[in-house]
Amino acid sequence: MLTIKDLHAAVDNKAILQGLNLTIHPGEVHAIMGPNGSGKSTLGNVLAGRDGYDISGTVTYQHQDLLSLAPEVRAQAGLFLAFQYPIEIPGVSNIYLLKAALNAKRKAQGLPEVDAMDFLNSVKEKIKAVDLDQDFLYRSVNEGFSGGEKKRNELLQMLILEPSMIILDETDSGLDIDALKVVADGVNSLRSPERSFMVITHYQRLLDYIVPDFVHVLANGKIVASGGKELALKLEAQGYGWLDNA
Amino acid sequence: MGGWIMLNLVTHYQQWLAQKIPADVLSPLRSDAMEAFAATGFPTHKTENWRYLRLTGLREQAFEVMPPSYLDEAVLAPLLLADCYHIVCLNGFLMPKYSQLPHGVTLNNLRSQLTDPAIQALIHQSDLSSSLVALNTALFQEGLVIDVKDKLDKPIQCLFLTDDLGAHCTSQQRHVLRLNVDAAAIIIAEHISLTEQVFFTNSVWHIELAERANGTYYQLLTDNAKAIHIDHCLLNQQARSVYHAYGFLNGGALVRTDLQQAFLGEHASCTVKALTLASGQQQVDQHVLVRHCVPQCESKQCFKGLSTNQARLILNAKVIVDQQAQKTAAQQQLQHLLLSPKAEIYSKPELEIYANDVKCAHGATIGQLSDAALFYLKSRGIDDARAVLINAFMQELLDLLKWPDLKARISSLFSVDA
Amino acid sequence: MNTANSELTALLNQNYQHGFVSAIEADALPPGLSEDTVRAISFKKNEPAFMLAWRLKAYRHWLTMTEPVWAHVAYPPIDYQHIVYYSAPKVKPTLNSLDEVDPELLRVYEKLGISLNEQKKLSNVAVDAVFDSISVATTFKDKLLSMGVIFCSFSEAVQKYPELVQQYLGSIVPYTDNFFAALNAAVFSDGSFVYIPKGVRCPMELSTYFRINAASTGQFERTLIIADDDAYVSYLEGCTAPMRDENQLHAAVVEIIALDRATVKYSTVQNWYPGDKDGKGGIYNFVTKRGACRGVKAKISWTQVETGSAITWKYPSVVLQGDDSVGEFYSVAVTNNYQQADTGTKMIHIGKNTSSTIISKGISAGFGQNAYRGLVRINPGATHARNYTQCDSLLMGDRCGAHTFPYIEVKNSTAQVEHEATTSKIGADQLFFCQQRGLSAEDAVNLIVNGFCREVFRELPMEFAVEAQKLLGVSLEGSVG
Question: Is B258 helix (H, G, I), strand (E, B) or coil?
Fold first, then answer.
């Protein structure tokens, strides 16, 4: 699915990722943990194609050179970044963005535009699953949404777009336990042998609900430790301090 | 008709310059300034920046030079704020006897400083396209030069008094306030009339804040109901300087204040807040221009104005963001209450923006006390509900007056007949 | 950041689509302006004496005036003696049907996407086409007339309904109003005329397309709309011009009268040639538009999408005389390259319980300068007047400007006036978010700009909304659900 080799990224000559290697196979859930400033969010942004980074290294996604693709081409190819801070777009309704995004993806796949009625029915079905009121479809994208509503809106987009590689960037931040469960249930419902996840998080709490196959610890722009779920528990118990000596 | 009167007035002030102002280093500038004034005379409604203000009071009489006078200590004593340093001016003349300042501040008479190139440079910044500034530039004689070199432990109260000898006269004052690098000072500039007669104050301030200087300037205008007060302030701020301008305007028949600010260094901030009550036949006109010439500065403006009786309240607040002034944050908030049927309010918040990475917003409201709120308070047994709501409207700004006796004095002036 | 910017630039640099010149023979006066020019225009149009007298008064008054300089725009002096004040396509003296219109002219309108033939058959929009200030064809006239609705060229109205013209011409915008209005009154050659009788709801949108074709020609059209008691009409105006290196002057006047309980909706999609990317050429669009709510509960609503012209100077206004009358102004103004716009509105509250709403959206790109200038005046007699104003500016690129100059004058203590304004840029975050959801940078910009303008676009009639959307390169939302 995704192979990252010797990935470096810098902003204004300040190195953030410094030789990161990671391979994610179809169906796997990888958690990326690390202290603040370790480069977790940068990793998500670089993979999604955000501007403003000086990048070297290679990333192969579904046999394509990911780093050469424009952000929208990556998205159309099924790479989805759930933002830590979802963006507000005044005046643009949620449902319009959903439809535009889905059609962009279908067009890239050579499929016709989605039928308006089918689309509406499917959206109405899925918005129930994320526990948002239907009114949210007609409100401006994320404008005036609470933190939890924004995260559930990200989940709704995920459910509609059915991506193959999902990157969750600090999805648990700002969520209370009920909202966290809703989001986790939604994410778990998407788990399948064809779909992979990268779960970026500071705390192990989220991993109680989205159970990873692998846990990696990111520090100073590199993966410094990898293991199974138990690694997350160790981090929870001991903090990140012990890694300094590792 | 108007033209004829104006011509006479212009001649009056031209003769003043020719006969009463001794030749000095500024003579060439003064004569340019008088020429600029003579070309336009006092502004009329056709001058965009003055369109709502009726300057009939200035056009109807030729004011004479304000003479020095004697100050009665019994009169002065209750006006002096405790726990402050003091500067006292009477009829535009500094009274050294009553002015005490700490180390860290030097006070000079402007007259003695005219040979200083830095002072000359400041005076040459005068915008002669404004005819009142031009008039002041041509005729000013007296003024303060306040230099602050340290962080002061107490505010400086600057009292500007006018007594009966000043009646039907004008004082053209020019003041300089400079805060050195890292200096900090609070200035409380208070204008009080000791006469019931008309007089005309036309003052120009130059305020310079060096890097990291921190200045707070309270402007308290409480002149008598006939007074004409024109005040023009040119403010320059260097990097990381912080400036707070707090205005409390109440009194005077015709009041016009201009604050022309410029950010010349990055990461500086400027906050302007003013509470204005126009009542009777008063005309009060406030203009604020904040200019972001460099990136990363922040400006905030908050105005609350009340107009009652037949008064006319005018407010023009403008922000200019130059092309290079990226990352600017600028806010303007103008709130006005109209309290009686014949009161008038003219509000003009302006933004002129040439940079794209900015956060600029403004809002202006004009309205009246909420009937629902009045009824609610009355239904709870409060009989002066109107006064309660008006005070609530003003309170936020009155709270900026941190000295109890001053706050009491100013608050009493801002009471509106309910 | 840089890719986003360059794509933005590419998007903004889409060429002007209507810039062709048509080989249509014109009957034109030589350039220059004098009393003789005014007389010649009036003579060519076979006008009654009152019209010539009015034009001459306007001309003489114009001679005493100077060009206004207060707007936030800059341009070299205009040589008023270099302008052609009258240019008419050579057509048969009267047109009874579209078949008689010069086929070349019909082709011009087809190119513009306005098929007069098709429109006649298919759509429910009546069109008056004005070519170099001369009305060349009006569709659906008979059907409208059967309901008492008069929709014709101004010249025809002068001939057929002189009493209506005499009663209302100049009653809202007198020739003394301003420099360009005086000029227009002296030399205007045609325009549209609309009268909706008492109690009639006009069954279709009335539409005028203006086109400047001839070189060195000024366009001075004049529109007069009268909605009698309880009448309703929605009126649309579109404009295009060929690409030329020189600047051409367009100084139009629109007057609207709404009597008791009448409603007039006036929508404009202004797409005059804006000049090239270096600021060469383009139309000077100096227009006076004003409506008067003369009657109780009358309503006048202006909606404008201003994308064209080198300079736009226009303030569609409403004088709210009747008690309970309503004025609205919805505006999107785009300035790109070296375009300058100084536009806004005046809401003059005179009657009791009058209310007005102003929504202005300015988009500046390239070296464009975009100013909102608005006046809200509450007169002493206008008790319980209300105004809400919102002006938002969107900046794209760091060489453009966005300015807000609102004048608020309140002389009645029962007034409620509220003004809000914001300035922002298209955020890199917003662009990236949309791209991460699969939209191209261009679509993302369109989406964001469209969202920014939504409150204005939804005021446009469907037919125009589509055009406005094309003009901004934006696909309109709202079709789903």
Answer: strand
**C413 contacts in chain B (CB < 8 Å):** 338-343, 368
Give tens-digit pLDDT for C377-424. Answer: 999 999 999 999 999 998 887 888 999 999 999 999 999 999 999 888
The CA distance from C352 to C325, in Å, is 8
Tell me if C347 sits within 8 A of C319, measured CB to CB: no
SS (H, E, C) chain A: CEEEEEEEEEECCEEEEEEEEEEECCCCEEEEECCCCCCHHHHHHHHHCCCCCEEEEEEEECCEEHHHCCHHHHHHCCEEEECCCCCCEEEEEHHHHHHHHHHHHHHHCCCCCCCHHHHHHHHHHHHHHCCCCHHHHHCEECCCCCHHHHHHHHHHHHHHHCCCEEEEECCCCCCCHHHHHHHHHHHHHHCCCCCEEEEEECCCHHHHCCCCCEEEEEECCEEEEEECHHHHHHHHHHCCHHHHHC
CB atoms within 10 A of CB A241: 8
SS3 label, residue B139:
helix
List subunits contacting chain B, requiring 3 or more Cβ pairs under 8 Å. Answer: C
B128: Cα within 13 Å, side-chain hemisphere: 16
Q: Which chains does C contact via 3+ CB–CB distances below 8 A?
A: A, B
Burial of B399 (0-12, 13-18, 19+ CB in 10 A): exposed
> Distance of CA C249 to CAs C283, C284, C285, Å?
6, 5, 6
Residue B139 CA, distance from chain mean position = 19
The backbone torsions φ and ψ at residue A228, rounded to the nearest 5 degrees and listed phi first, read -90, -165
CA distances from C253 to A78, C228, C294, C404 (A): 55, 20, 19, 24
Cα Rg, chain A, nearest whole Å? 18
Work out the end-to-end distance of chain B between its first and last CA atoms, rounded to an integer number of angstroms.
Answer: 42
**Alpha carbons B277 and B416: distance in angstroms, whole number:** 9
H or E stretch covering B9: helix B2-20
Q: What are phi and psi of B349, to 5 degrees?
A: -85, 130
The 10s digit of each residue's pLDDT in A193-242 is: 999 999 998 888 889 899 999 999 998 889 988 998 888 888 878 877 77
Structure tokens that stand for B221 in this block: 């205008």
Distance CA A15, CA A36 (A): 15
**CB atoms C436 and A52 under 8 Å:** no
CA distance C55 to chain B (A): 29
Q: Phi-psi category of B240—alpha, beta or left, where left has phi over 0 and alpha has psi -120 to 50?
A: left
pTM comes to 0.82
User: CB within 8 A of B206, min separation 6: which ones?
Assistant: B122, B123, B125, B174, B175, B176, B177, B234
B344/C409 touch (CB, cutoff 8 Å), yes or no: yes
End-to-end CA distance of chain C: 34
- Rounded Cα distance, C212 and C304, in Å: 19
| Low-confidence winner among B5-14, B356-365, C222-231, C285-294 (lowest mean pLDDT) | B5-14
